[in-house]
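Subject: Sanity check before I submit

Could someone independently write out the structure tokens for this chain? I want to compare against mine line by line before I put it in a report. The sequence has 96 residues.
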Amino acid sequence: MIYIQVASGAKEAFLVVKERASNEALNNNAPDPLESYIRYKIVNTNIYTMHEALAIADVLSETPVRIRPRTLSCLLLEDNEYMFFIPCRFTGRKNV
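---
Independent answer below. Compare away.
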């Protein structure tokens, strides 16, 4: 699931997205998909168009990456927009 929010900063956008997801879950009598997420990580500081960001999020949602538990990935978009998505976490250990 992808969440996009306009805000003056990533922290503000993250908090609004969490609140919005919580309200939607409450209204639909469904579990909150972001309830366990307590932080976010900006993937990189490049600013992307919506099309570019969707393509990157699609790849990162399927590719295991090393990221702390309960962390959403964030991409910076044009016009002070922030895209948050649930990354695919790398769970195994590298064989030596």
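---
OP: Matches mine. For the report I'm noting this point. The two ends are 35 Å apart (CA to CA).
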